[in-house]
Write a structure and sequence with these properties.
Keywords: Cell cycle, Cell division, Coiled coil, Membrane, Transmembrane, Transmembrane helix
Distance between the termini: 186 Å
Order of helices and strands: HHEEHE
CATH class of one domain: Alpha Beta
Protein name: Cell division and transport-associated protein TolA
CATH topology of one domain: Fusion Protein Consisting Of Minor Coat Protein, Glycine Rich Linker, Tola, And A His Tag, Chain: A, Domain 2
Shape: elongated
GO molecular function: toxin transmembrane transporter activity
Pfam family, one: TonB_2
GO cellular component, one term: membrane
Radius of gyration: 80 Å
Strand order of the largest sheet: 2-1-3
Structural class: alpha+beta
Number of helices: 3
Strand content: 5-15%
Number of strands: 3
CATH architecture of one domain: 2-Layer Sandwich
């Protein structure tokens, strides 16, 4: 058998109803304030106009007006009467009776005839006015500047100039002699090596026997820098083919031909003429 215990509602707390009524009253008052105390409308804010001033006008200081003092009245000016000047009495001239002037009429001189008649006087012709010539323009004279030759030289400067001129002439003469000596040395060197080339070629010639006279043959020889023979061309024949061929063979056999050690002389030997006589 189950038994349920139920609460006894008859014995409630005595202040519970009062508290509930008081809480209800507070809520009603709060809701009333919310509804009637607040403005629930959305009103647009009023536009405000603001004036902006860039430069404020300077206010002039207020001038304080001083009270005008009354000027004292000026006393009237009393004009003094001017003293009357009495005219001085003029002296009375005593009039003396004038005596009548007695004039004697002189006889008038007779009119003389002019020595020169009016007709003889001729008017002189007026001088002719000649047109004045304009004044000639004044020519400006340019002062002549004295040249160096006209200026007299001082003795010291003249001596220095003469010394310099003498030294310059001496130097030029020395240069001329040195150039002449160098040219002579070059010619001697060229002649020396040409003689050596001709002697070497002649030593290689096999002379044909019993040729009449003294025939001569001429060749054009072109060399290379080392002294080697590039070509041998007959310029003038001796009239004997045997002799011409013997000389040409000797040129090829004599190579390399002797050349000066200075490369500047090679142009004198690159293309030269070789002349060989049968009899020395």
């Amino acid at each position: 058998m189950q038994t349920a215990i139920q609460p006894d509602n008859h014995h409630a707390e005595p202040g519970k109803v009062r508290a509930a009524l008081f809480a209800l009253l507070i809520h009603l008052v709060f809701f009333g304030l919310l509804i009637f105390g607040l403005n629930w409308k959305n009103e647009a804010p009023e536009a405000t106009i603001v004036e902006l001033w860039q430069n404020f006008a300077e206010t002039e200081p207020i001038k304080t007006t001083q009270p005008i003092k009354p000027t004292p009245p000026t006393p009237p000016v009393v004009q003094k009467p001017e003293p009357k000047v009495e005219p001085k009495p003029q002296p009375v001239e005593s009039k003396s009776p004038r005596q009548p002037a007695i004039t004697t009429a002189e006889p008038s001189p007779p009119l003389r005839k002019p020595a020169i008649s009016l007709k003889a006087i001729k008017e002189k012709p007026a001088p002719k006015q000649t047109a004045e010539k304009p004044p000639e323009p004044v020519k400006k004279t340019v002062p002549e500047t004295p040249s160096d030759k006209d200026i007299p030289q001082k003795p010291v400067e003249k001596k220095i100039a003469n010394t310099q001129a003498t030294e310059q002439k001496k130097q030029q003469e020395q240069e001329r002699l040195a150039l002449k000596a160098k040219q002579a040395q070059i010619l001697d060197e060229i002649a020396k090596y040409k003689a050596m080339i001709q002697a070497k070629i002649r030593s290689r010639i096999v002379m044909p026997p019993d040729l009449p006279g003294n025939p001569v043959v001429e060749f054009r020889v072109i060399l290379l820098p080392g002294g080697d023979v590039l070509s041998v061309d007959l310029r003038r024949s001796s009239g004997f083919t045997v002799f011409d061929d013997a000389v040409e063979r000797a040129v090829h056999l004599a190579r390399p031909l002797p050349l000066p050690p200075d490369p500047a002389f090679f142009r004198e030997f690159r293309d030269f003429s070789l002349t060989v006589y049968y009899r020395e």
